[in-house]
Amino acid sequence: MKHHQIVIAGGGSAGITVAAHLLNKQPGLDIAIIEPSATHYYQPIWTLVGGGVFDKSVSERSQAEVIPAGAKWIQDRVASFDAGANTVTLEKGGAVTYDYLIVALGIQLDWGKIPGLAETVGKPGTGVCSNYAYDTVASTWENIRSLKKGTAIFTQPSTPIKCGGAPQKICYLAEDHFQRAGVRGQVNVVFASAADGIFHVPHYVPALNRVVARRHIDAKYKHDLVEIKPASREAIFKRMDTGELVSMAFDLLHVTPPMSVPDVLKTSGLGNEAGWVNVDKGTLQHVNFPNVFSLGDCSSLPTSKTGAAIRKQAPALADNLLAVLRGHAPAHVYDGYTSCPLVTGYGSLILAEFDYDKKPAETFAFDQSQERYSMYALKAYALPQIYWHGMLKGRA
Ligand code: FAD
């Protein structure tokens, strides 16, 4: 049994960023990060990889390279949590005890929940693709560039997802590509979403509805993908309002899979009713275990699950954990800030930034609900650099 002052479960965007903030604020802390993957991914760029702008290799770095100096890396998976005993058990065997625990396991992709999806997604000849995993993202561009006629469907599920805008971003890029390739007249573009509108933040809705109308996208709301029939290339949707099943033939099907809290958390005793790690939405401290904190996609924080949100959550969590460690009350309040760079085509983007109340919390003085090339350039070229060299180092 090993002991560390602070154990961080998960070394994705949230785990690495919060470790860096802690070590910047108090060098010498004894921090261990439990993370099985040898590779760290910058997932936001997968939208542009699926759109054929970048190769997927730009999204990866070795995990060893991003673990902050001074933190120990335990290359293993958490098998279970026992918060009452300040212990996590590891999949390869053994256990680690802690004074403080930070849970940052991300969100789980439930490919298996849609019959016909796991066996087709990313496979040549199926027409089924997804930007949501490193292994399948290249298949999105393969399918888009080779489609010359037929129906292209882009789905959004009824569950919480990471980056709520990503399902529609790839739809806009594909439509733009079909126009540029001269095949748009032969391709029917459908955005089929379980949501009841294009976006959940009112300020950005009129501009996005204009994009949908201008691009002649057939938007079908309250349509939840429930099955794929690979042999007949049919996608089966359940109408959220009537429960009716609707079949649509497809030649290209881009799927955003249903998602949920990671299985290991479902039985951990750390979750709220829905399973998300149950933390105070301001301080990020667990509501029952004061030495446990959480941030990122697996947390109960009622904001849109993005890396941009983590950029603001991590310094708050670090300040609050250090306050508790020094015997003080946590005082750094996170306001729910999150951001969704809504790519609306090659060279245009609406930069949505908002808080818990879904009120705009914008960085720039101009109207960010307008499509702009400058914001596209920010996403494509500046944000990846800010991520690797700023956020993951606890400096941005
Ligand atoms: P992750 O970064 O997913 O990390 C979770 C980590 O936990 C992983 O490394 C995993 O290996 C590890 N783990 C899992 N289970 C265990 C276990 N049992 N034990 C130990 N470790 C475990 N965000 C934006 O801000 N802007 C965007 O434009 C944007 N676009 C996106 C587009 C796409 C297609 C996708 C997929 C995501 C996008 N995001 C975007 C969302 C962003 O990538 C995530 O919100 C962010 O990565 C969440 O960080 P996290 O640390 O919570 O989870």
Question: What this model shows, in words?
Answer:
The model has no long low-confidence stretch (mean pLDDT 98). The radius of gyration is 21 Å and the shape is globular. It has helices at residues 13-25, 46-50, 63-66, 134-146, 166-180, 205-214, 263-266, 307-325, 373-389, and strands at 2-9, 31-34, 39-41, 60-62, 71-74, 78-82, 87-90, 95-103, 108-109, 128-129, 150-156, 187-193, 218-220, 223-229, 234-239, 245-249, 252-254, 259-260, 292-294, 338-345, 348-354. It is of the alpha/beta class and 396 residues long. Strand 6 (78-82) and strand 7 form a beta hairpin.
Brief descriptors of the model:
five-stranded parallel sheet, binds flavin-adenine dinucleotide, 396 residues, globular, alpha/beta, 26% strand, seven-stranded mixed sheet, 9 helices, 21 strands
Record the SSE blueprint.
Blueprint: E1 2-9, H1 13-25, E2 31-34, E3 39-41, H2 46-50, E4 60-62, H3 63-66, E5 71-74, E6 78-82, E7 87-90, E8 95-103, E9 108-109, E10 128-129, H4 134-146, E11 150-156, H5 166-180, E12 187-193, H6 205-214, E13 218-220, E14 223-229, E15 234-239, E16 245-249, E17 252-254, E18 259-260, H7 263-266, E19 292-294, H8 307-325, E20 338-345, E21 348-354, H9 373-389
Parallel strand pairs: 1-2, 1-8, 2-5, 8-19, 10-17, 11-12, 11-17, 12-13
Antiparallel strand pairs: 3-4, 6-7, 7-8, 9-18, 14-15, 15-16, 20-21
Bound molecules: flavin-adenine dinucleotide.
The site of flavin-adenine dinucleotide has 36 residues, from α1, α2, α8 and β20.
